[in-house]
Amino acid sequence: MYVPFKKLLTSLVLFPLLGSPAAGAVETGINTTASSSGPGAQPNALKPGGNDNASARDSFRFLIDGHRVTTTRDASAFLGRATFGPSRESINSLFKLGTYEAWLQEQFTLPPSLHMQWAEDNIRGINGTGDIRDNPEDWKRHSDTLSYAQRDIWWHLATQGQDQLRQRVALAWSEILVTSVNNGVLITQPDARISYYDLLVRDAFSNFEQLLHDVTYHPTMGKYLSYLGNAKAGTSPGSHPDENYAREVMQLFTIGLYELNPDGSRKLDAHGKPIATYSQDDVREMARVFTGLTDQNGFFFPADGDTTHFARTQPMIAMEEYHDHGAKQILGHSLPGGDTRTDIDAALHILFQHPNTGPFICRQLIQRLVTSNPSPEYVARVSQVFNDNGAGVRGDMRAVISAILVDAEAFHGAELYPQHFGKFREPLLFITHLFRAFHARDTTRILNIYEDGPAYSYPSYHFHGTGFTRQEAPLEALTVFNYFTPFDAPYSLRQQGLVAPELEVYGKQGIDDLLMGIITRNSFVYGTYNLSAELQLQRETAWIKRLEYDRLLDELDITLTAGQLSASTRNAIRSYLVKRKESLTDNSTTDEQLARYVIGLIMTSPDYALQR
User: Residue 44 CA to chain centroid, in angstroms?
Assistant: First the structure.
């Protein structure tokens, strides 16, 4: 049975406050009307299913010419993809700049907001110490405290940081180049996790080969995928190099399992079967490459000592006596055999230059930022920019990110492919948008456990519990495959060749809990965590008090749903608002509470859940 992508929401998202009248609104689905004033409105670039005559280089040239921001709907939709959620202020700021190109260039030049400085300040706040970098006991003793602080730091920068594009792209990289707290070692090393995330922040706009290099040499990845302390065969009787990173760096980080065309579709052999990109022999040979690396603690094997902050945060070093110096064959290339760095850098360069890497990585970035099911033409245009930024440079991520965000399909996909364009919002981004749109003030404190501790009054426990309420938090995925893979989908969508990755962490109960907690009561208690976020709703409350319902809904439509709020959803919410306002005969429900209910109804509607 054919089930349109947008209609799948019918069974997943409800209006918990409206009751049965909302069912009709849900059945209607999402308004697919979109503005025609966004970038790339050339007719030959908008022909669904046909050939796109605009090359990726033309697409990037189109960007640097600077396209004007002409509607609030387009501005809000753009910021919904490029940031952690638009607010009225950020929409106005984009309009003031005038062009999407100006906004991108401004974001590219902002200095990175890094998490480690916040962590170090946290320890200084606890201990009153000066230079804490060389004192491993500080980091060890306060590892639990810093684990909570890590979450708080992330939420603060995601919701209040100025370098929104960099932080948003860093989250996307963290979902592709995965490490996680769910590791026997990293769970007690928050400084290692914070340092790794800062790497993704710093390298968010760098060349992909540089990013791949820095990720490979970071001790956090070395511990997570078990090649830190990876020794050549025969170091101990019967030993062989660990193959974990050797496999994942190919399967998940660069080339994928099957050979791809430039548009991301699979190449097929003479029998119509997919062609594997690598063999088990390639994995074994690649494992030999990743031998000889350790952290900077002065020992090769981690069990010999991993105590210093420096060793957890600085690039790994080589110990040549543990490296396999023999010749190697990788993906049809011969490595003559050399020292550790020579072999690793050569292997990474082979992966970087592989024709799969562009479409494999670009498709995932499009999925993370714009749409779960990009057209082959969209993938091909962006992949060509990956291959050549217009100046002969391969892997220029500034050019790639720009091409993704201003492509014609990003602005007109709902017109071109109304049945499957868009992406389900990640639960994480649901909350960041709420907090940014309504200027949430963080007020959380840990209950019971740490109230008598030295850090309880220090401003470090604010948003740290948020991940628990939504089953999703940065760097806390259960496996290297992230919370969801690029290919996840319910059966009904898989049968149509479509995917909906974020549905792996979606659930009605989670949405209802969030609605009744954060939106309607400012707080949500989960075990020993008290998540609080005071929303600033003075303007919305005033509109309800003055009975300016259409003004309220117009504003929320732009800020929350980028002008995509369907007439049926809007009418249902407006009717609810009028009836509730008319029935206010006592103080049981205030105008501010009504404003919260309206926000909750919009943010749990299909029109919001499916970002278009």
Answer: 31
Burial of 84 (0-12, 13-18, 19+ CB in 10 A): buried
CB proximity list for 146: less than 8 A, separation 6 or greater = 119, 122, 123, 139, 190, 191, 194
pLDDT of residue 301: 67
Coil, helix or strand at residue 611: strand
Cα–Cα distance list, 222 to 143, 233, 264, 455, 490 (Å): 20, 18, 29, 31, 34
Q: Taking the model in full, what pTM does it have?
A: 0.85
Q: End-to-end distance of the chain based on CA atoms, in angstroms?
A: 24
Find where tokens 């990110």 sit: 401
Task: Identify which has the larger pLDDT, 324 or 477.
Answer: 324
Structure token pair of residue 610? 């499916």
Enter the tokens of residue 243.
């193959």
Rounded mean pLDDT of 79-99? Answer: 97
- Convert the pLDDT of each residue in 161-190 to its tens digit: 999 999 999 999 999 999 998 887 888 888
- d(CA 170, CA 194) in angstroms, rounded, equals 12
**Residue ranges covered by each domain of the chain:** 230-306+319-355
Residue 492 per-residue DSSP state? H
How far, in Å, CA of 201 to CA of 165, rounded? 10
Share of the chain above pLDDT 70, in %: 73
Find the helix or strand (DSSP H, E) in which 446 lies.
strand 445-446
302-347 pLDDT per residue, tens: 555 566 778 889 999 999 999 999 999 999 999 998 999 999 999 9
Read off the pLDDT band of 125 (50, 70, 90): low
pLDDT higher than threshold 60 for residue 43: no
In sequence order, the β-bridge partners of residue 293 are 318
Concatenating the DSSP letter of every residue in 293-344 gives EE-TTS-SSGGG----HHHHHSPPEE-GGGS--S-EEETTEEE----HHHHH
The CA distances from residue 486 to 159, 358, 482, 489, 551, in Å, are 25, 15, 10, 9, 39
Q: Residue 591: pLDDT above 70?
A: yes
- Range in 77-91, 313-327, 495-509 with the lowest mean pLDDT: 495-509
Q: What is the dihedral of CA 175, 180, 182, 188, to 10 degrees?
A: -160
* Residues 380, 55: Cα–Cα separation, whole Å: 9
Rama region for 220: left / alpha / beta (φ>0; ψ in -120 to 50; rest):
alpha
Helix (H, G, I), strand (E, B) or coil at 83: coil
Nearest to 117 by CA among 127, 106, 132, 135: 132
**CA distance linking residue 523 with residue 534, whole number of Å:** 8
Longest Cα–Cα distance of the chain, Å, equals 84
Confidence band, pLDDT 50/70/90 cuts, at residue 134: low
Q: How confident is the model at residue 54 (pLDDT cuts 50, 70, 90)?
A: very low
The residue length of the chain stands at: 612
